[in-house]
From TrEMBL:
A cellular component term, taken from the record's GO annotations: membrane
InterPro entries: GH, GH30_C, Glyco_hydro_30, Glyco_hydro_30_TIM-barrel, Glyco_hydro_b
Keywords, sorted A to Z: Glycosidase, Hydrolase, Signal
Record GO biological process: glucosylceramide catabolic process
Family of this protein: Belongs to the glycosyl hydrolase 30 family.
Stretches assigned to the Glycosyl hydrolase family 30 beta sandwich domain: 411-470
Protein name per its UniProtKB record: Glucosylceramidase
Limits of the Glycosyl hydrolase family 30 TIM-barrel domain: 76-363
Lineage: Bacteria, Pseudomonadati, Bacteroidota, Flavobacteriia, Flavobacteriales
Length: 472
């Protein structure tokens, strides 16, 4: 009899163990926590970790953001800034120890870093260089049809060295190149400002791009994507170029695309690279059956138009990628206004409209918003302001992008989440399986709300104009 009871107990032990395990698992889920990181509109908190929030099954009447991982959208390539020549020059002025610490903070995935994963650089000078140059400048009246004088020029002194230091920290960072102007001798007005690329130089200019990508590769720098022209409908900057949609289509299908194919260049060609008010520009190129195969996607800025323009293009060509490549913060705006607007539109807005990245404009400048070219942007505020005493001030752009880059690495997938009232948001699942929710309170009062995921929820409050990133 004793042996029989002992046998029954032994047979029941696995079932008891399963019940205990299931029970403990259930408790673990119901007690799971979410991290909360907040930047307040009044600057009282800047990307600062708060007390953890606890998921529970309790219900209430609060508005709710429902996060749904079964809804999957685009894969994220990264968040970051433009590493302008001026940015590189400004960062290089830091002593070695300070510079190394800053680059680790910006580009590593350490707990005290913001993990930038995407950079845009200019092909030749942008307007945030101290002077205008191309990679093949010639004396007036002379040309260089064989590009025998091509070289990376001033970039070898600042952009290339800083990129090498960044790549040592994050070898997988994505880099996009964009020209502000071709060499002046290729243009119809003989000036770095405005004018158009002469058709007789289309092929030479295509070879110029090939040489650029190969020259950067020889420095150990892979250019993942290029755009044929920064802001092609804004010829008033210095440098700049007017390039109409039909011209860009001709250049891509007859010259740039075939040149890349011949040289076995894998760099993506991304069209447009200008404001959201003209989705017809990229659509004109994508509608060209000969240009279409060479085009990987379209890029946008938001100085005009609505961020939904990206979805307009996505709906027409769902197999072509979207990119958000530039938005500046200005010296005349407030921390509060820039934080609200840019997180709502540049970060959350671009992500909810299929963009694979979100980039702000210059990474760094000095205390006088320099350097910039004659006629370039004198009010563009970098994410960092570095003064002559090597003091580093983290400006609003640092926090706008940091709220995404720190928590949403390359390879994350945007997942489903609903806009609830004034609470604009975007949700992601990271490669490691974490869920990330970025929320901006666009209202004028504090909002109390729930975040619901897998039948559990947390309740929290976010002040007006503030931004939070929740991670679990």
């Amino acid at each position: 009899m004793k042996n029989s009871k002992k046998l029954q107990i032994l047979l029941l032990l696995p079932l008891i163990a399963v019940q205990i395990k299931c029970g403990s698992s259930k408790n673990a889920v119901s007690n799971s926590k979410a991290e909360a990181w907040i930047t307040a509109s009044d600057e009282s908190s800047k990307l600062k970790k708060q007390n953890d929030l606890v998921f529970s099954t309790e219900t209430n009447s609060n508005q709710t953001i429902l996060v749904d991982a079964s809804q999957k959208f685009q894969t994220v390539e990264g968040f970051g800034f433009s590493l302008t020549g001026g940015s590189a020059q400004t960062i290089l002025k830091l002593d070695k120890t300070k510079r190394e610490a800053l680059l680790q903070e910006l580009f590593s995935r350490k707990s005290d870093a913001i993990g930038l994963s995407y950079l845009r650089i200019s092909i030749g000078a942008s307007d945030l260089n101290e002077k205008v140059f191309s990679y093949d400048d010639m004396p007036e009246g002379q040309t260089d049809l064989k590009l025998e004088h091509f070289n990376l020029g001033p970039d070898l002194n600042d952009v290339v060295p800083i990129l090498k230091e960044i790549l040592a920290i994050n070898p997988n960072i994505k880099i996009m190149g964009s020209p502000w102007s071709p060499p002046v001798w290729m243009k119809d007005n003989g000036s770095s400002k405005g004018g158009s690329l002469q058709p007789k130089y289309y092929q030479v200019y295509a070879e110029y791009f090939v040489k650029y990508i190969q020259a950067m590769k020889s420095q150990g720098i892979t250019i993942d994507a290029i755009t044929p022209q920064n802001e092609p409908l804004h010829p008033g900057n210095n440098p700049s170029l007017l390039m109409l949609a039909e011209q860009q289509a001709e250049f891509i299908k007859n010259n740039l695309g075939p040149a890349f194919a011949k040289a076995k260049i894998k760099t993506k060609i991304i069209v447009y690279d200008h404001n959201c008010n003209k989705p017809e520009y990229p659509l004109t190129i994508l509608n060209d059956p000969k240009a279409l195969p060479f085009v990987a996607g379209s890029a946008f800025h938001l100085y005009e138009g609505d961020i939904s323009a990206l979805t307009t293009v996505h709906n027409a060509y769902p197999n072509k990628d979207l990119y958000f490549t530039e938005q500046y913060t200005g010296s005349g705006s407030s921390f509060e206004n820039d934080l609200k607007w840019s997180v709502k539109n540049v970060v959350i807005g671009s992500m909810r409209n299929w963009s694979k990245n979100a980039l702000s404009w210059g990474l760094a400048n000095d205390e006088f918003y320099k350097p910039f070219t004659p006629g370039g942007c004198s009010t563009c505020k970098g994410a960092l302001m570095i003064d002559q005493n090597q003091n580093i001030k983290r400006e609003v752009g640092y926090y706008i992008i940091g709220h995404a880059s720190k928590f949403v690495p390359e390879g994350s997938v945007r997942i489903g989440s609903n806009i609830s009232g004034n609470l604009y948001n975007a949700a992601f699942k990271t490669p490691s399986g974490q869920i990330v929710l970025i929320v901006e309170n666009d209202g004028t009062a504090a909002e109390t709300f729930n975040i619901k995921y897998n039948q559990k929820q947390i309740s929290t409050t976010l002040n007006a104009g503030s931004v939070a990133t929740y991670v679990w």
